[in-house]
Amino acid sequence: MAKDYRSTVFLPTTEFPMKAGLPAREPEILRRWEEIGLYEKLRADSKGREQFILHDGPPYANGQIHIGHALNKILKDVSNRSKQMMGYDANFVPGWDCHGLPIEWKIEERYRAAGKSKDDLPVAEFRNECRQFAQHWIDVQREEFKRLGVIGDWANPYLTMAFAAEAQIAGELHKFLMNGGLYKGSKPVLWSTVERTALAEAEVEYQEHTSHALFVKFPVVKPSVPLLDGATILIWTTTAWTLPANRALALSQREEYCRLRVEAIGENSLARVGEEIVVASVLAESVARSCGIEAFSTLGTVKGADVLGTICAHPLRGKGYDYDVPVLHADFVDMETGSGFVHTAPGHGADDYILLTAHGFDVPQTIDEDGRYFSHIPIFGGDNPARIFDDNGKEADANLRVIEVMTEAGALLGRSRLRHQYPHSWRSKAPLIFRNTPQWFISMASNALREKALAAIDATSFYPPRGRNRLRAMIEQRPDWVVSRQRAWGVPIAIFEHRETGELLRDDSVNQRILTAFREKGADAWFTAAPDDFLGDAYNKADWTMVTDILDVWFDSGSSHAFVLEQRPDLKWPASLYLEGSDQHRGWFHSSLLESAGTRGTAPYEAVLTHGFTLDEKGRKMSKSLGNTIEPQEVIKQTGADILRLWVVSSDYSEDLTVGKTVIQSQSDAYRRLRNTLRYLLGNLAGFTEAEKLPYDQMPELERWILHRLAELGRIVTESCERYDFHRLYVALHNFCAIELSSFYFDIRKDALYCDAPESLRRRATRTVLDHLFGCLVKWLAPVICFTAEEAWLTRFPSSDGSVHRQQFPAIPEEWLDLELAAKWEKIRRIRRAVTAGLERERVEKRIGSSLQAHPTVHAAADDLAVLETIDFAEICITSAVTLQPGDSPSDAFRIEDVPNVAVTTRLADGSKCERCWKIAPEVGQLAGSEELCQRCAGAIVCVAA
């Protein structure tokens, strides 16, 4: 009976378990970080280092975090942790956006459910309820972000509703007041009739919407050319409710227009045989189809430039709309759809407003804040004014009443329904309108704000680079910044306006009194104090009005650089990096740039990184209505936060990221490969000491090749972290662990680790390399799988207050990089692929079991074999012997396509099996006293016994 040699084999031993148990283990690590004060220790460790400051774009405090929040905060944490371990002081101060409509809307819903109105309460009381609501969700989200492993100054976050922050926000607005950039104007802005406030472009999303599409006739009353006399000009619109606000028609002076006579019509057509209309020539056929005109004749054509100056009548002339409607040129007129003429209502469109004010038109007030016509509007106003949308955002009666009146007047040529993209509030999800209303604006022209912002963009680094062009295009084209909202919860536009002249009060002493009150009592002071408290003795309160509009929340967060980066001594201005989703080109990146450029002349950031959005595994946007959302809390509960963190870095987050059960499962599989690598290293480093280490020049070639790969990986890690290209870092580390280590190096060196004598140079070299591998991998992986890396580090280096996150990335010796050695081992590994494939065929054919039973012969060119002769190729192939045979190979030899000119034949190895290492060797059975062992194992046992 063979002796049991298991006790003489140096098998791995470690307390680092194969099963991670992350949902239970991660909270324990979080508690330890709290107990040892890891955040504070990192600040102390890095005191005096160069700062890397990632300024947190504040999430909104109105609900639990979703998968998009998780993506964003994990990316920030990986960035910060990697910079910290690269030798920076990477302090992170998280923040929250606390003001604004969504919170106010939630509180209003409570009142509506109780049959009350917020208007029944003092504004300060209502604002306090909003504050408490925001604080509750800040506390909830704080714990959820910490559970993701995000490290930062969670005890001292920044809040836009903090008194000092509210004072600074008001102070930033005062800078625009004092430099003349702030003004009051009446312009069409995107307006929510449901929420009764203006919205910024960043608060708008485009959704499918069905509109009424109308072809409307405007009779020509003063033609510019005879061809137009007696005709009607045809316009096309999808906003019937704007027709009472029409003041002009627009065309393209470069296009050709024609006068058509209707010859035949189809059933239900609104056209009449014999009537004559003017449209763009290229659109005549499509107009006819849309209006049920089966035949028409062309009476003549005219250049658009010659139509300019024509005067039309409003379709409802004689019914209160008795003004002239001139025809003007506009660059925004295209020939894609419609008739080639555009009806323009200066109170309900940005292009319309610019065109008509440039021609000296007044802008009429047509629609009130509820979306109803003002009482002075003929037909549609009065005591029962028509309304565009109801309180739920559904279509009310305005469009239908306009269509009915236009039909009765014989003004319609065609009517249909159009499904198209239409602006909606991203909060209430209700459709929006353009509405002319008095608002507060920051001028893009005053103080050269546009030029300063564009110059700041050019001085900023963008990741990915295309972000620069996107933000630049927005700044180049954007109108003046609407900074006012007609709500209650937020920082007020704390300024005074003269009751008679509209002049703005610009007085530093008044401003300082306002800011002092805000710092002491918060922005509520504006609603509870008397005007005299701010005006002092220099002004008569009867002459001045306190503005009560609220600042756009994008101005709040856009000012955060001023009350966070500039005010905290542990941070710096400008920030090293702003990192948010790609929608923030029109949101936080945008508002922060304008606020800072307008007050400081440059951007508050040195670099901008954008990531994509989260999609389900079918590529659809996540939506609760579709039931395709993935909640980060559930993923953490089932698999742990490190799996989510791995998903983030394994994805190309410069594009949209897919996530779902299959994706999470694949990340769990990838995680196991990384964890098993760390476990293998820990298990085989048991008992390793500094005395066992071998210097580089005593290492076998295989070990030096692994060190070369570590040197290459070190460069990739550094470059990836510098460029925030964590996807590249992940791919490099994962493939190294899975392919070069697990499937190659570990597989080969198991025999030396388990069976060589403890003092053998080969085993010492292997363990030395494992020590280097562990030191590199656990640190390189620490920013990504922060919990697992900490667990592995403490398993090997238990400490009362130690942490892998207090380490820095290893400095790789230059001598490890050996390109000549790498080229040689690339050839060795290529030939080895042919051998291992041949052995696999032998196993499938059941001619061998273990590869150690085999003795392959490698047939190859002399120069290839010369390389193999310099190493123990049998050891590399994990066989008991190998023969290198130059020249022609047998016709039945095994070959694989991707390794040409190499063939393999295999026979059984000569000798007997060693009962300790399982190699086949001729000397087994020949050694006195150790008949069951090979010579190597017999010597190893003697060393162990000694």
UniProtKB/TrEMBL annotation:
One of its GO biological process terms is: isoleucyl-tRNA aminoacylation
Q: Which GO terms describe its molecular function?
A: aminoacyl-tRNA deacylase activity; ATP binding; isoleucine-tRNA ligase activity; tRNA binding; zinc ion binding
Listed under GO cellular component are: cytosol
Q: Where is the motif named 'KMSKS' region mapped on this chain?
A: 621-625
* Binding sites annotated in the UniProt record for ATP: 624
Question: Where is motif 'HIGH' region found?
Answer: 59-69
Q: Residue ranges of the Zinc finger FPG/IleRS-type domain?
A: 911-938
Record-listed L-isoleucyl-5'-AMP binding positions: 580
- Sorted alphabetically, which PROSITE patterns does this protein's record hold? AA_TRNA_LIGASE_I
All copies of domain Methionyl/Valyl/Leucyl/Isoleucyl-tRNA synthetase anticodon-binding, residue ranges = 703-854
Which residues does the annotation say bind Zn(2+)? 914, 917, 934, 937
Enzyme Commission number: 6.1.1.5
Q: What does this protein do?
A: Catalyzes the attachment of isoleucine to tRNA(Ile). As IleRS can inadvertently accommodate and process structurally similar amino acids such as valine, to avoid such errors it has two additional distinct tRNA(Ile)-dependent editing activities. One activity is designated as 'pretransfer' editing and involves the hydrolysis of activated Val-AMP. The other activity is designated 'posttransfer' editing and involves deacylation of mischarged Val-tRNA(Ile).
Q: What is known of its domains?
A: IleRS has two distinct active sites: one for aminoacylation and one for editing. The misactivated valine is translocated from the active site to the editing site, which sterically excludes the correctly activated isoleucine. The single editing site contains two valyl binding pockets, one specific for each substrate (Val-AMP or Val-tRNA(Ile)).
Q: How does it assemble?
A: Monomer.
Q: Indicate the family of this protein.
A: Belongs to the class-I aminoacyl-tRNA synthetase family. IleS type 1 subfamily.
What this protein is called in its record is Isoleucine--tRNA ligase
Gene coding for it: ileS
